[in-house]
User: Fold this.
Amino acid sequence: SDSALERGIAYYKSKKDSYSADRLTMVSELRHALNTNELVLFMQPKQSLKTGRIVGIEVLIRWPGRAKPIRADEIITLAEQTGLIKPLTRWVLEQSLELRSRLLDRGWPMNISINISPNNLREPDFPIFVQRLMNSYHSHQGAIIFEVTETSMMQDPGNSLKALNSLSATGIPVSIDDFGSGYSSLSYIKQLPASEIKIDRSLVTELTTEAEDRVIVQTTIEMCHSLGYQVVAEGVEDDVTANLLRDMGCDMIQGYLLTPSLPFDELLEWLERSQQ
Ligand code: C2E
Ligand code: CA
Ligand code: CA
Ligand code: CA
Assistant:
């Protein structure tokens, strides 16, 4: 049985080593992808339920050239663990402003929503970087919106709040992402300099069948409105859900009902087809 144990340990070690070797390879591949512009931003529209117009676009990272597909959140976790998140987010920001100006050139003025990692908030020069970039693109302050997840803020509430305040001092609107997906402290949320709340997909998917979800979403919308936030529902996949959300007073929706995220050219075609 001893030798079985030893074999077990040896097996475990080899798994562990191959795991970290894999990971090292992935890190250097990601660094390379970032430097050679292999990463791509896909775009998903955000629609106003009041007017039916597309009012904004969220950018989502993709790594299309990779033999073994890797999800966006895996890319981000890897980047966060290795310090690559700093150059990655700056690349995303610059690309986003570039895409925004290309949309504007084609007659589509849009706000761009960009996902920010809590690590970025800890970079002392982040607000200055953002300000310089905005200036060089002659962008007005509402041109981009920063999305931060509720859960990521809760990991270090005090410092996250400070960082978010200094960022919001640059005038860029903040959106609280994935609201309702984790532990929330309303007394904390209300201190955040946010103008928008995005209700997490997990509360939206079963809205038509789950009475409890309807109560939670309705209450969240009312509460957010009294606190002065705009409300976006994410993960809307059908008309029935969209109509329900409109009746509940929700301001905007995002999701497969409109379209999954698309590369720039396909987004343009989609806009021209769906919005006259
Ligand atoms: P998120 O910010 O909550 O983004 C929404 C995710 O839901 C996206 O997945 C999107 O493709 C997916 N989605 C949108 N509509 C629907 C729908 O109707 N039904 C379903 N089933 N799914 C829908 P994606 O692109 O895989 O991104 C996953 C997460 O990775 C994002 O979650 C975001 O937290 C993170 N992420 C993506 N790009 C970036 C980035 O550039 N920077 C940072 N920091 N995080 C990013
Ligand atoms: Ca988001
Ligand atoms: Ca989200
Ligand atoms: Ca989500």
Observations:
- The CA atoms of residues 66 and 87 lie 20 Å apart.
- Residues 177-178, 198, 234 surround calcium ion (ligand 3) (CB under 6 Å).
- The beta strands are 40-48, 54-62, 111-115, 144-149, 174-179, 196-199, 230-233, 252-253.
